TrEMBL record:
Name of the protein this chain belongs to: Caspase family p20 domain-containing protein
Comp. bias regions, Low complexity: 466-480, 490-501
Region (Disordered) residue spans: 272-293, 414-542
UniProtKB keywords: Signal
UniProt family annotation: Belongs to the peptidase C14A family.
Domain of life: Bacteria
Signal peptide: 1-24
One Pfam family from the record: Peptidase_C14
Alphabetized InterPro entries for the sequence: Caspase-like_dom_sf (IPR029030), Caspase-related_regulators (IPR052039), Pept_C14_caspase (IPR011600), Pept_C14_p20 (IPR001309), Pept_C14A (IPR015917)
Pro residues composition-biased segments: 455-465
Compositional bias per record (Basic and acidic residues), positions renumbered to this chain: 430-442
Comp. bias intervals (Gly residues): 279-288
Gene Ontology molecular function: cysteine-type endopeptidase activity
Length: 542
């Protein structure tokens, strides 16, 4: 196995021994540190960061699995095995994943880079890396009490071939319910590897997390301000939280610290209202079915700018600056800019605000994912590092809408076969009488009984010539056509043949000869049913 798995036994430290039964839930951690990259320059600190983090988590009661320098297949396997272990522990487990190494964003999606990745074009990124979404989904699929993901992964992009077609840093990710995701720097920004034994982010976390009783959200706020100060404002950690349970790394009572007491979310909506537009018009703001593309925030709205301004008025510039950096919302930053103008803090805050607006607008564009959403971003931020990506995704979304709107021909459509017209059957005037029956021909000859049950149904129209009457009763018959065997004409009463053609050229049962077994032609047709007069001109039917 290429990657080395190490299970760190839980040490009987005093801090862990003080865990109360209420807080002694199962704790599982996976720590990945990718330093030995094969296609790009190695990173010195991820290996050190992973080792120090594993020791801290073990002291905090976690059963830690370390997996340094993983390739893509090994990284995916490690995440899958870890999720299986969490599932075995039960639904009360706290699961934590720490990753240190390179990270990239492509088309608004974040990727963690294994050590064996060789990326020469943008299309290589999803094929040779691990999606952060896949890691989050693997954890979310396992019932657990709390899920923590810590990413020290926003270092500069080492793959120069794609530097111009992907954005800087990582994109905004909204944490699933019961989770918190912490980044070593703000969305769209790059983190520093640091010149010491650990990166600025991991170094600050190792110090803050040891404080007893500090809720994890407050711990990350303290880490943010410490890193921001240590890097002179170049790096400001960021997190997205949807936690549903309290958590602290070490038990105890939190010491008093200048922490902003607010329930405001980490990311707030911009105050920019997008213009409206109709779908397909090419105007910014166009959305599906003519709907307006509104700014989407991955978190709900927090305190208003006016509320923050009222609080900051009573603070000094330095105190106000520390408060807004810890809180890290646009409303807090905007209130600070309205009240204070002295450098260097005013410049740092303004840079954070401008970049945060860009990244929230980018989050909105890729979440809506329509031509209108990308047109809006292009119109608002034409000079950013995400402009080229927005143009490419705009073309992709437009092509997708064209494909949806254009019907696809499955094959030639044949017209249905014509249905023959059905001639209505004429009903009898007297329904009490039984329908006409045809007697079966005897062995001696074929005979057809004709009953005088009223006028017969009208025959189908002849193809040519008027109706012909035979004998004295004037029965209409069909046209006279040629004999099938070359003889004289064949008489078809009512358009139907009543027997084969005889050798003499006449039809059996016609006046040319009597019916076999009888003394002469007989017809029944009188009003009383009495036989009619026999004669040589009678119609030989019975």
């Amino acid at each position: 196995m290429a990657w080395r798995k190490l299970t760190v036994a839980i040490t009987a430290l005093g801090a862990f021994a003080a865990l109360s039964p209420a807080t002694a839930e199962p704790r599982m951690a996976l720590v990945i540190g990718n330093s030995a990259y094969q296609a790009v320059t190695e990173l010195p600190n991820p290996a050190n960061d992973a080792k120090a983090m594993a020791e801290l988590l073990a002291a905090a009661g976690f059963e830690v699995t370390t997996a340094p320098d993983l390739g893509q297949a090994e990284m995916r396997r490690a995440v899958g095995d870890f999720a299986a272990k969490v599932a075995e522990k039960g639904a009360d487990t706290v699961s934590l994943v720490f990753y240190a190494g390179h990270g990239l964003q492509v088309d608004g999606e974040n990727f963690l880079v294994p050590v064996d990745a060789r990326i020469s074009r943008e299309a290589d990124v999803p094929l040779q890396t691990v999606r952060l979404t896949d890691v989050m989904n693997a954890l979310a699929a396992v019932p657990s009490k709390t899920r923590i993901v810590i990413l020290d992964a926003c270092r500069n992009n080492p793959f120069s071939e794609i530097n111009k077609v992907v954005g800087r840093g990582l994109a905004i990710v909204d944490a699933p319910a019961g989770s918190i995701v912490s980044y070593s720097t703000s969305p769209g920004s790059e983190a520093e590897d640091g010149s010491g034994a650990n990166s600025p982010y991991t170094g600050a976390f190792l110090t803050v997390a040891k404080d007893p009783g500090v809720p994890i959200e407050q711990a990350f706020k303290r880490v943010r301000y410490a890193v921001h100060q240590a890097t002179a404002g170049r790096q400001t950690p960021w997190e997205s939280s949807s936690l549903t349970a309290d958590f602290a790394f070490f038990p105890g009572v939190a010491t008093s610290a200048p922490v902003v007491a607010t329930s405001a979310p980490v990311v707030a909506a911009t105050d920019t209202k997008p213009p409206t537009g109709a779908a397909g018009t090419g105007k910014p703001g166009a959305g599906p079915a003519g709907q307006q593309v509104a700014a989407i925030s991955p978190r709900g709205a927090g305190r208003s700018v006016d509320s923050w301004r009222s609080e900051l008025r009573t603070k000094s510039q330095f105190e106000a600056y520390e408060l807004v950096v810890r809180d890290d919302t646009l409303e807090a930053y905007q209130a600070y800019l309205q009240l204070f103008s002295a450098a260097p803090y005013q410049t740092r805050v303004r840079e954070i605000v401008e970049r945060r607006k860009v990244m929230i607008a980018w989050y909105t564009a890729v979440t809506v994912n329509t031509p209108g959403s990308y047109e809006l971003f292009i119109a608002q931020y034409p000079g950013t590092d995400l402009f080229g990506t927005a143009q490419r995704l705009l073309g992709r979304a437009a092509n997708r809408q064209i494909a949806i709107a254009t019907p696809v021909a499955v094959g030639p459509v044949c017209p249905p076969a014509p249905v023959p017209a059905v001639q209505p059957t004429k009903r009898r005037a007297d329904r009490s009488e039984k329908p006409e029956k045809t007697e079966k021909p005897s062995k001696k000859g074929r005979r057809t009984a004709v009953r005088d049950d009223g006028p017969p149904p009208p025959p189908p129209p002849p193809s040519s010539g008027p109706p012909v009457s035979i004998g004295v009763i004037g029965i209409p018959i069909g046209p006279i056509g040629p004999r099938p065997y070359g003889g004289g004409p064949v008489v078809r009463p009512g358009g139907h043949s009543h027997g084969p053609v005889g050798p003499s050229g006449g039809m059996r049962g016609t006046p040319t000869g009597p019916v076999r077994g009888s003394s002469g032609p007989v017809m029944r047709g009188g009003p009383t049913g009495a036989p009619m007069q026999r004669g040589p001109v009678g119609f030989g039917l019975r």
